[in-house]
Amino acid sequence: MPKSTHNPSFTDWHKTVPESTRRDFLAKVGKTALLTSLGMFGAGCEAVDRGLLDRGLIPVVLEDPQAAGLPKPDMFVHSEIPFNGEFAPHLLNDNVTPTERHFVRNNSGIPERAINKDLRGWKLVIEGEVHKELALSMDDLLRFPQVTMEVVLECAGNGRSLFVPEVSGTPWQRGAVACSEWTGVRLRDVLQAAGVKSSAVYTGNYGEDLPNDGSEPFSRGIPIKKAMDEHTLIALKMNGEVLPAAHGFPARLIVPGCIGSAMQKWLNRIWVRDKVHDSEKMSGYSYRVPAYPIAPGDTPPVEDMRIATAWQVKSLITQPQSSVEFSTDTAIKVRGHAWAGENQIDKVAVSTDFGLQWQETQLIQPSNRYAWSHWETELTLVNRGYYEIWARAYDDTGTAQPFTQPWNPKGYLGNVIHKIPVSVVA
Length: 426
Ligand SMILES: Nc1nc2c(c(=O)[nH]1)N[C@H]1C(S)=C(S)[C@@H](COP(=O)(O)O)O[C@H]1N2
Ligand SMILES: [Mo]
Description:
Layout: H1 8-16, H2 19-40, H3 44-49, E1 61-62, E2 76-79, E3 84-86, E4 104-105, E5 110-111, H4 112-116, E6 124-128, E7 134-136, H5 138-142, E8 146-154, E9 177-186, H6 187-194, E10 202-207, H7 224-227, E11 233-238, E12 241-242, E13 252-254, E14 267-273, E15 288-290, E16 305-307, E17 314-319, E18 325-327, E19 331-339, E20 345-351, E21 359-360, E22 362-364, E23 373-380, E24 385-395, E25 418-425
Parallel strand pairs: 6-14, 18-25
Antiparallel strand pairs: 1-5, 2-3, 3-4, 6-7, 8-9, 9-11, 10-14, 11-12, 11-13, 15-16, 17-19, 19-23, 20-21, 20-24, 22-23, 24-25
Bound molecules: the ligand Nc1nc2c(c(=O)[nH]1)N[C@H]1C(S)=C(S)[C@@H](COP(=O)(O)O)O[C@H]1N2 and molybdenum atom.
């Protein structure tokens, strides 16, 4: 069954099982037995449809976005199952993105534990290339120093809809990006408590959102150097509240500067590895980009693909809203954010004549490293007609956003300049 297909018989079926039965069953057999059974039938949903499974046997993820408060108001929904939704740029004007405006990107369902805010039996396991394996409870994690940071979180596929020729995958526009405030413990502190061996190369991160169709769970990893960086967090709170179900309750990774897929939600296991993590989502064309520039539409051989890690310089116009009408000679306030992965923003310039002339904007520094910067300026358009407001950010290495989108087969890391159409009427 394709993961994006809504299967009413399956969804309705799990709702008819009383809560107590479902819990008892899970407590009795645990996840491993459950997965083994699903694996035996190949695809869980099909097995349920054909009446092959015990009535007590249910998946640990619920494919019911409403239970997790989704969709959020004003959200542009790409898919319900798995749930994917973003916001229009003008709704992302806040310096710190409120939780109700943070995009959601799921590869499978949302764990039942997250929906019920249920910590029973939850542990974060640290294993692999460590001297001492750990299985930490929430109380254990809360004993580590707690750190708070604003961090840009952006899906690697943000801007995919702007790729020409078109690429497959969720057609994100501009809104699969946000900068919320995250609180939690440094991953480094936890790894140091486990004693990282000198053989450690990479992490393999796992979460509780196990796909119902028997496919490999979503798992990605980060280089050990990034894992040991003081800014990399195991986040327990978002904007001062316990993590919402959709954003990874009870714990998720926050890996500043990196693409969003590195930020494992519903985190329950970190496998410290002696080689680059080789899960499905680290391999082939998944979250990987060509090692060299390619012609639009070309697909390089798989051995020429490299893991996508950091974002490049980028900006977003959050004000004015696209397609607004102004009258001649009024001051138009233009505003937005800019960010640059591992680098810092140096300046942002805007143009209203298709790039012939540029006006530098006033830059407002980020709250902390890895938060986005803000920029603003005023424009006056003296003639009637159609205009585009273009914004172009430059980072501290002198790199600027491209005018046309460099192409890669899966539409990752899109950072072409942002353009807003406006018109001036008499
Ligand atoms: N366990 C788990 N973690 C995950 C994902 C997922 O599907 N499962 N999606 C990843 C991707 S691709 C992105 S872009 C971010 C999105 O985070 P958000 O939904 O909080 O915005 O979570 C990442 N972490
Ligand atoms: Mo993503």
